[in-house]
Structures are given as C-alpha cells and as structure tokens.
Amino acid sequence: MQVCEIFYSIQGEGQEIGQPAIFLRLQGCNLHCKFCDTAYSQEINQKKEMTIMEILKKIKEFPAKHIVLTGGEPLLQQKELIPLLKKLKNYFIEVETNGTIKPIISQYINKFNCSPKLSNAIKLKIKYDSLKFFPKEKTIYKFVVNDKKDITEIKKFIKENTIDKNKVFLMPQGKTTEEVMEKSKSLIEICKKEVFGFAPRLHIMIWNNQKKI
Ligand code: SF4
User: Quick one: which of 141, 150, 151 has its CA closest to 193?
Assistant: First the structure.
C-alpha cells in the first residue's frame, strides 16, 4: 500500500475532535485542490510502499484504539485496505474523504467524514454521484468556507445531494493560526444564522499547520 505517513496525535476536525488517534495517511489523490494543506500526499510515490504487516506493527506502537484513515484520498486504495481493516476490528475507524469515490469498505468503518470540494478549491465541475453510496448513519459532511459567498453553493449542494443539514459542518479556510482565527469569528455567525455546525481546525489554530495532528 502507498503510505505517506503514520503518526499519533489528536483528531483536529469533525465530531471526534480532540480524541487521541493514530493517523494513517495514504499517498495519492484524485484531486488537486487550491487550499490543500497536505499537498505532499497528492502524488503516488513508489518509495512509500508498506506491507499490511509493517503498517499494523507501526499502529500497535501507539496506545489509542482510534484510527483516522486520511490522505490524499484514502478510498483510492480501499481494496488494499480490506485485509488491514479485518485485523483492526477492535479499533474505532474514521475515514477522511473527498467523497468522489464509491466506498466498498463501509462495513469496517465507524465514521466517514466527507469533505466535498467547492468551486473555491477546484475549478473542475466534479460529479458527486458516489455520495449516495455512503451510509447515512455513519457519514458527516465538512465544507471548507473561504468567504460568505460559499454558503449559497453549500446550500445548493446539500439540497441536490439530499444531505441532512444536521450532518453538515462548516470549517474556516486558512493556512495560518491568524487566518483561521479571524475567519472563525465570521463563520460562527453564519453557522448560527443558517443553523449549520461549526468545526474548528485545531491543527492550524494551535500549531499553525507546522505540527502533525
Ligand atoms: S481532496 Fe484533500 S488531499 Fe486531495 S487535493 Fe483536495 S484537499 Fe488535498
């Protein structure tokens, strides 16, 4: 499997925010977003091949029973992930995905954190037909908001894809602590008005995106 990095930190986003978790970041992505904060994980790199046993050994070094599968786009390697997931049945497993790939591993996953990309991040018109295959009871949606113009697009998106508004969280765009903190204030007011959840981005707020989280 193409692995970018494995590290131990706390979940920085979404409903499980603050939970100690092992991050298995897989290499390779099918998108190239403007605001990508892990651009180093986008390209496939053969030098980062790891076997299931090597990954498992690394995971067992950490005390938590919570794994965040992230990327890149981790569902690009979901077939290869199945033997690993079968060995991790006593772990709580979250997947961070852009939502463009139909999941075939839902039975092994506790939570999908889907982050569809808006026109503020990518110019291509992306088809999100795959979203209907994500199990509703296990899936939440996170949107990165750059400015308030994005809200109209988000509302249109959730209507077109019949997404439950209660499952939607808005996150501030920003690559520095200052930028994220500043945008958070106005975004919280938008969340209150539109009744969306607000999701902070702890790794940027605390460590300025310099430290792994
Ligand atoms: S989908 Fe995620 S990992 Fe891929 S380019 Fe976009 S932000 Fe980066």
Answer: 151
